[in-house]
Design brief:
Elements lengths: L8 E4 L8 E7 L4 E4 L4 E6 L10 E6 L2 E2 L3 E4 L6 E2 L1 E5 L5 E5 L9
Antiparallel strand pairs: 1-2, 1-7, 2-3, 3-6, 4-5, 7-8, 9-10
Length: 105
Amino acid sequence: MRKIRKNDEVVVITGKDKGRRGTVMQVLANGKVLIKGVNRAKKHQKPNPNLGVQGGIVDQEMPLDASNVMVVNPETGKGDRVGFKLLEDGKKIRVFKSNGERVGA
């Protein structure tokens, strides 16, 4: 089970985009995350008429390491560490370390 999942609201804690917030679009297998609107780069794209892709310079989100982001706690509005907790029925859930509330509940 991963601490950061798709559709989590996160804040960047280090790097050139420090302080920016966004939603996780994808969690990659190598421990990196794609965040909507964060860590954008210009990509020079060749046109491909077979796929209907137009050429030019496009903005694209680049992956960030998962250690450089924190999940936003909706109660405080700040980034918070995430831990795990076992429920009575044996189910494992994610909880915020500061207040013990469930993540994404």
